[in-house]
Amino acid sequence: MAIENAIFRRSELLLGDDTMEKIARQRVIIFGVGGVGSWCAECLVRSGIRQMTIVDSDRVCITNINRQLMATTKTIGQVKVEALKERLLSINPSAEINALQKIFTQETADAFDLDSYDYIIDAIDSLKDKALLIRLACQTQAKFFSSMGAALKMDPTRIKVTEFWKVKGDPLARALRKKFKSQGLYPKRKFQCVYSDELLTNRGHNGTCGTEQCVCPKTKAGPGDPTLLNHEWCSAKAQINGTMAHITAIFGFMLGGLVLEDINNQ
User: How confident is the model at residue 221, as a pLDDT?
Assistant: First the structure.
C-alpha cells in the first residue's frame, strides 16, 4: 500500500485524501479498448481507479499500432484486453482489472450486469451494439459517458463535450439518432458525449486487416477464446477510415476526465 500511496502522491496533492478514496472505490466498465477506450483506461488507472472491467473481443493487429495504447510490434496477435491489463497492472499492481474478451450484443448484454457499476464508458464502433449499450446504460443508476466517432479528424481544438442530442457535425451521432427514431426506442435520460465536428476524407489507400488484402494472416491457433480467434470488424464495415493517435487519445482522456470530474464534484 505504501507503493500505491506513492504512485498517487501528486494526484492526492491536488484532490485531497477524501477524493482519492472516493476514486479508489468506484467501479468502472469500459466497452471497447481500441484507440479511444485504451487511453481512457490508462487515464483512469493512473488517476487512482482500482476496480475496472475492460471489454473487447479483438486481438492486437499491426494496423492498431498507430493509435492504440497497448498495440506494439511485440503485442501483435495478443488478446487486446489481456495486453491492456498487463499494461495497467504495470502502472498499479494493486488494481483489480477484469479483462473480458467478449462482444457486447443483444445476446450477451445480460451477462455484463451493468447495474453493478458506478461508471459505464462506451467506446465501441458497431452502430447496432452501441445503440443497445446506450439504451441499457441509461436505464441504470450508473453515470454514463459515450464517445462518438474519432476517425477522419486532425484538429484537436475541435474536440468537445456536449449532451448527445446536441452533438452536431458527427455522422455516428446522426446515425444513432436516426436508429433510435426508427425503432421508437430512446435513451431514458440525457448523457454526455465526446465528439468533434471535423470531418476529413481519406487521402490514401491500403490493404486493411479483415479484407482479402488483410495484412494480418489468419491463424489456426492462438491465445484467448478460440471462437474469436479470427474475429474482426473490418470486413463488416462499409469503409475503413483513417485515424490518428493524438485524436483518439484526447477522446479517451476526455472520457476519463469526465469520470474524474464527476467524482471530484460529489
Answer: 60
